[in-house]
Specification:
It comes from Brachybacterium fresconis. Pfam families: Bact_transglu_N (PF08379), Transglut_core (PF01841). The protein is an alpha+beta fold. It has two domains: 112 residues, Immunoglobulin-like; 176 residues, C8orf32 fold. A five-stranded antiparallel β-sheet has the order 14-13-12-11-15, with helices on one face. A four-stranded antiparallel β-sheet has the order 4-7-2-17, with no helix packed on it. The chain has a four-stranded antiparallel β-sheet with strand order 5-6-3-16, with no helix packed on it. The longest helix is centred in the middle third of the chain and has 15 residues. The radius of gyration is 20 Å and the shape is globular. About 3% of the residues have low confidence.
Amino acid sequence: MSENPLPMIPLRTEDDTAAEAVDYRVHHLTSYHYAKPVSRNYGRAHVEPRATPHQRVLSHEVVVDPSPARLTAHTDFYGNSSTYLLVDDLHERLDVHSHAHVTVSERRYGAEAMSRPWEQCAPDHWGQLLPAEGVDFLHPSPRVPTLTAARELSETVFTPERSIGECLAALTALIHTDFTYDSDATTVTSTLEDVLAARHGVCQDFSHVGVAAVRAAGLAARYVSGYLRTAPSAEGALGTQPAGEMIGSAASHAWLSVLVPGAGWVDIDPTNRTFVDQRFVTTAWGRDYGDVPPLKGIVVGPPGATSTLDVAVGVVPVPSEAAPAE
């Protein structure tokens, strides 16, 4: 492991004063361009920010161009909101816009909870109010199977009696140090085995590695999708990712969340080697990427109707007084 200092755990003390919440305008554009006109498009988008203990959703709207024949909302078992769309006319492009206004609060965790040995975060220590959905996040899932390489990685981090806070900081640092961010190395069909072997990938891959390591230790971990704070562009429209910005801030992002008794779900981002804070906007969570892709669907068209995909994301802070009245 790296000799560099581990990520700092955001602990709460009695003397702490909570930082002010941050308001964001979020704009996510997914744009498909087809080589030949297609006749029908079915899609489901996980692009709506969700309400959490650290996040308030003040407004949200999905706009589809061309105008859809159907646009409906759905809430899944994990509480994620998704949007179903149907475009039923000939079209050569499809633009899906998500506009949201959210407020993100500071995350801090109790020192006692984060200093307990990681073994005390197993289900036997969850207490009588066992989170029903937490059981799903203990077991292998389609994109996070049980692998020897993941278990070996887990064993280097989850050593006997080590505090859960230190384990999560060490896991974040280990993945960030030992894996190389490379947007050309993987696709959405790449497997966890591929990523563990090549040690290259993107935020989705690193989140799967982290989830696999935590589950290998017998703890609950879930895959989280969302966005990172971006810098405003020169035109004031979608955000950009200038030098020095966090990795993944110009597109949808992913990280993982671990269940810690007494603290709740603790989120870590191995791509940027940090605990999740007010720079992050959460949209959805599930067992792995397959549960909550930003947009998936089926296109009906002639042979050779290939497509190109463009994605742009802006998560720009705005003064709280600019918020519309509720």
